Fold each of these.
Amino acid sequence: MTGLPEDCEVDILLIGGGVAAAGAAEELRRQGFRGSIALATRESDPPYYRFYLTKDYLRGGIAPDDLAVHSPEWWLDNNVQLWLRAPVQAIDLQTGTARIGRRSVRWGKALLATGANVRLLDCPGAGLHGVHYLRTTWNADDLRKDLQIARDAVVIGGSFIAAETAASIAALGVRTSMVFPESAPLARSLGGAVGSIVADELSRLGVTIRGGSIVESLRGDERVRTVVLADGAELRADVVVVGVGARPEVTLAKRSGLPLGTTGGVRCDATLRTGHENVWAAGDVCEFDSIRHGRRVRIEHDRVAAAQGRHAARAMLGSDAPFDTCLYFWTTIGADLHIDVLALDAPGHEVTPLDLTAHRDLVLRQRKRFGRTGGPEPAAFRYGAGGETIGYASINGALSLRAVQRDLTSVPDASSEGSHLLLEEKS
Ligand SMILES: Cc1cc2nc3c(=O)[nH]c(=O)nc-3n(C[C@H](O)[C@H](O)[C@H](O)COP(=O)(O)OP(=O)(O)OC[C@H]3O[C@@H](n4cnc5c(N)ncnc54)[C@H](O)[C@@H]3O)c2cc1C
């Protein structure tokens, strides 16, 4: 454990080493909080941006230090204690203590920002060597090592993480296939029109797309050699990467008796307070009463996690504003396809392509930024539900999301203290 003193006391304990906990630390100091703050993470790295792992970091384009949310000096200058390799095993809500190894930490208020873990592949052979997941820098380093000697890789899953990973592996010169049950990558979340743009781009980058495929088993000796599909096809594989989703990391919450919600996350009210008055949650683990959706939701995206960390910090300092946000995420697949999605709700499938005539200048400008070497043309889609616009997807910068964000936030409370215009916030 790095930096953790013997039994001690802190005013605010942030549990987790992702953008949510880092956002909370930053906001507490920004708001002028002068008490003691400690951030405990089970990882050996200070908080970093996971989104690089499937992109530049996997391709070897950036160094580990470039992933960091804050520089080493930031933690010192802001007097936030950083406890690395410090998994919190238990929190006692009655006494306000946390157990980290044999040490005991007394806290006044705590933030649960324990994020999510990868969903594991469940089929024969899933435990063979050469089968990888991507959540940490350690995972990415391990995968990169294996890719140096690989000829064939199979990426399992149709998510944005799987698509980004397949594009990066192909760029490293490894023959890459992508297998998933849907008709096209990302089709389940963004519909078939966006899915087919993604499929075309991946094919252009050399990835063999096998939609409509179910993996039956992985075969090999100690190492994986073959991926067997339900239709009997066998794909050669020296490396397999599984990208089939994530589950909220709630071990600690369960152990401490905090209520969980229907999505499996830690149940929070609209201000992100959990079932205990001195404990809040933020990020992938947080299921909150969303005033915007009129129900409880849990969102697994970088900007939202960071915004929730900042919001929880303000709540700890006395704000009772509800957390109110659109869903925003982006994905970059290879070097030439960038997709932004802004939605009030999960986009769904009522999709209309948008006429971009009115956005001509923007499209021309964006064409110079994105897709320079033959990637997809800028395009945009509107998502609807019952005649109402509930979201937009913008391909290669076709839309000004700041502008359409205003459409989507023209709902009650959008100007309240808790509302988050995510595109105006720096993550
Ligand atoms: C490979 C990858 C690519 C992604 N790409 C994108 C993208 O392009 N766009 C996008 O919007 N989103 C992307 N995401 C999602 C985004 O990274 C997550 O939404 C975000 O990381 C969530 O932040 P968090 O702080 O809630 O949790 P996490 O980042 O998961 O951090 C949780 C931290 O808590 C630690 N922890 C857990 N339990 C304990 C404990 N008991 N004690 C101490 N520490 C503990 C974990 O080790 C981890 O450090 C990507 C995610 C991954 C994995």
Amino acid sequence: MSVLSFRCVAAAACVALGVAILKAAAGPAEVAQIKPRQDKFRDIGGALKAINDELKKGRIDWDNTVVPNAQTIKDRSAYLLNWFPKGSGPEAGVKTYALPSIWQKNEDFVKLGKAAQDEAAKLNQVALSKNGNALKTEVDAMGKACKACHDSYRSGDYEKEDED
Ligand code: HEC
């Protein structure tokens, strides 16, 4: 079975199972956050990857690739902490990799979110400065800030089920 169809089957099963739980545990407004939040994270992930790919090439295209993608990361991550209302975790009954610890250790989660926002702002500045060495350093720092949160608050199943 392909990775994609596995995810679809799992999601369908979760939706069916979740309908009853959903009414009791989480309101539709919280549940409705999950899909758009995953889409926005994918945007951020794609943008960071595009910058990384640019570094691997010999010649960095600042204007068409690095600057706009750094802007996307900064703009999107500015709202990241709003995407996790209580009730939008696994109890929502739809497929999500968000772990319950987000709400149990929320102070720490918020701290990591803010740290990532700081790195995104720095990345944006470095993009505008068009300094290749600084870009390499900052892309690494940005990646570490993302990973720090994923290590604690995103289910390890994501890595098993998804390639990127
Ligand atoms: C404060 C915590 C936090 C930070 C910081 C963070 N993420 Fe995430 N990310 C999550 C959580 C939690 C999920 C799972 C969301 C879900 O499944 O509902 C996630 C999911 C994702 C996904 C998978 C989306 C999907 O379902 O296909 C990608 C890609 C991603 N993040 C990229 C990034 C990148 C790139 C950064 C840094 C620029 C970043 N994230 C920063 C917590 C974070």
Amino acid sequence: MSHEVNAVIARAKGQPVELTSVLVPDPGPGEALVRVQACGVCHTDLHYREGGINDEFPFLLGHEAAGVVEDVGADVAGLAPGDFVILNWRAVCGDCRACRRGEPWYCFATHNASQKMTLADGTVLSAALGIGAFAERTLVAAGQCTKVDPAVAPEVAGLLGCGVMAGLGAALNTAAVRRGETVAVIGCGGVGDAAILGASFAGARTVIAVDVDDRKLDLAKQFGATHTVNSREVDAVEAIKDLTDGLGADVVIEAVGRPETYRQAFYARDLAGRVVLVGVPTPDMTIELPLIDVFGRGGVLKSSWYGDCLPSRDFPMLVDLHLQGRLPLDKFVSETIGLGDVEAAFDKMHRGEVLRSVVVL
Ligand SMILES: NC(=O)c1ccc[n+]([C@@H]2O[C@H](COP(=O)([O-])OP(=O)(O)OC[C@H]3O[C@@H](n4cnc5c(N)ncnc54)[C@H](O)[C@@H]3O)[C@@H](O)[C@H]2O)c1
Ligand SMILES: [Zn+2]
Ligand SMILES: [Zn+2]
């Protein structure tokens, strides 16, 4: 049997998204059917719509979600109807070469549902990041459901499913910011502000927010930025050096995904500093750097996939910290919207008006 539900799809490259009805199969072995309660609008959804991720249209968009398990496949253990869960895109396999060497946050064979969701005419949908949660119900691998304290608001919890986790994890896991370090974050959207919050939480003494939009810089202060730099007005690299005794930051986190901002990150760090790329570039982007600078400046150049998180380790902990009042995750929710408002939310994201619009169902 399958369920007919309302959902938001991107039918073709660059076309506005559409609210339409899709078919969601009952869960088979290893799968779970989830009633989505909230799903944030992430810049990666827009990348999908623009054809920046791959060409497997049509996409069922949405991947920052929380909801309630409605049904599970016959062989599923540890998950039951009624459980409140955050959906993750890292259901680790336990068996690939990354998992076997004890680095499951790099898992190269993460689980997704085996059955496909489709349009009414049978056209197979590609679920964004194997989730597809701008939908009243979605089908995922059981391992993509991470149980957390149901006391948290779904619109806040869902954000941990992608952007907020990616930013927090870029600071806490990938960069492993230490107490007293200096950190700069380039790009202060939902992801960048989460990196600022993570750096602040880790005890960084200086947290420099860099953006081209003053409204974003004002918001960044609420997440712990100690200084702000508008890189449309001043040179970002020089400004970051000025704020770090002329040295550059110990850690620079790039949360835009463009060559020019990566170059700023590369040159704005101190010798032997760490650069973390969490912004997602498009396949056509390239960067040229003097190899002597790569060598001579030393340190670490890393990418952060999903904040190097382990959902089962990190989501319940971060929800608990939030419920204790120690991690203001609710500040990422700029507005709650309906399923029909996703295209308008992309426009607001483009105009820099929101950190996160969250679809509430
Ligand atoms: N690595 C991951 O696992 C992961 C997860 C989620 C999102 N992302 C990526 O992170 C990036 C940010 O996502 P988001 O949802 O926060 O997007 P967003 O659109 O909300 O924020 C981007 C921010 O960058 C700023 N910006 C744009 N150009 C700039 C420039 N030249 N210099 C400085 N700032 C600039 C914008 O003003 C905006 O505040 C995207 O590329 C997204 O795909 C990565
Ligand atoms: Zn694995
Ligand atoms: Zn995302």
Amino acid sequence: MLKADVVIVGSGASALNCALNLPRDMDILIVTKDTAERNDSFLAQGGICVLKDEGDYDSFYEDTMRAGHYENNPESVDIMITHSRDVINDLIGWGVDFERDEEGNLEYTREGAHSTERILFHADITGKEITSTLLERVRELDNVRLIEHFTMIDIIERDNVCLGIVGVDKEGKLTSVKADCTVFATGGIGGLYKDSTNYRHLTGDAQAICIEHGIELLDMDYVQIHPTAFYSKEYGRRFLISESCRGEGGLLKNSKMERFVEELLPRDVVANAIFAEMEKEGSEHVWLDLTPIGEEEIMSHFPNIYEKCLKHGYDITKTPIPITPAQHYFMGGIKVDMYSKTTMDNLYAVGETACNGVHGKNRLASNSLLEAIVFAKRAAKDITEKYDTYAENAKTKGEGVDFEKELENEKYTDVDALMERYKKLVLDEIEKERLNRE
Ligand SMILES: Cc1cc2nc3c(=O)[nH]c(=O)nc-3n(C[C@H](O)[C@H](O)[C@H](O)COP(=O)(O)OP(=O)(O)OC[C@H]3O[C@@H](n4cnc5c(N)ncnc54)[C@H](O)[C@@H]3O)c2cc1C
């Protein structure tokens, strides 16, 4: 059995920012399903939004709400925007390097459905820059342990108080973790879909565990399809062609090389237009022409995309690339309050796995890293303030609980079957919610 004051499940940007904002005298354990670096936070390309100046508030707010079909929680949107500069300053303080102009001022780019440039970036590998820096800072902390290849398969709870988790390592060995507070930072659900830009091991395990334990979920049918993933016949993760490519002038074309949609409309609108065009033409993809961006801008802003496409035989400075929409982001998830607390005591959820309603029905580009980082910091603050209460809760409810004996639960005898059942539970829940809404 392992013990910690706080156990954080996942090692993406939300998990790491939560750990960094918890007190240094807290014993923190991070467990993660794969290696520490294999998560969607490392894949983020385009950038991270920030409130450029006070004058941009109304426009940023309106862009976020419009993209979300006005189904967003206004309070979450306000919190995300008003705290954006603060967390960007944290990131810079930790050593994150955003692009700057010749005078050293931060540079901003633009993506679909933004009415102005308000996105900070680091070439086309912003997520790697942010998350690898956070990971370095976390690895420097004496009070944080990190265990890789450790998959959470359940929680241990009594009377709606979370007492810790059950996990399994690469060899199939089960271990219980006793913790006063648990934080789910398990990311998206792309691994449940054939075509997704997400890592395949992100399969909504936390959502399934919530269903099993009566923890509330929200907007489970709000799944974002990204309009432009590199088309491939092969099975596996789809390579994303960042929205900022369209923000910088990339054009969508059909097989006759004619434009058929306004490229900077919200993601869902553009994705639907592509699906309609593919159906009309009977094709499996459309084309994205990045040549209008110009070779110089392509090489400086999108070097990673350039290299990846070149490997597949496409020089994006000269020729259009085949693209298709793919599952990309999960707006729904585990219902949380404004401090990322779930409906179970001693349990928080942060990042893509959580739903505080900030994105409504459709996420605005580059708002997810921001949301993950802002609300993970708020979770850390809340946990710190309420820690004594949680410790007392855990002590009272944990009395008589044998954490070793918990592992003898029959449902853990076939972990593979359990994980397959979990996948189905989540997909069924998404479908149920979709039908409810009709
Ligand atoms: C290709 C791509 C490009 C993107 N570009 C942008 C962008 O430019 N700007 C932007 O704002 N957003 C972007 N996003 C979205 C953004 O990257 C994610 O929403 C965000 O990084 C999610 O962070 P997270 O910490 O919630 O989850 P993740 O970073 O995905 O981390 C989830 C972690 O949970 C772990 N985990 C999962 N299940 C378990 C389990 N059962 N037990 C233990 N560990 C578990 C995983 O191993 C992983 O470490 C992009 C996403 C993708 C896929």
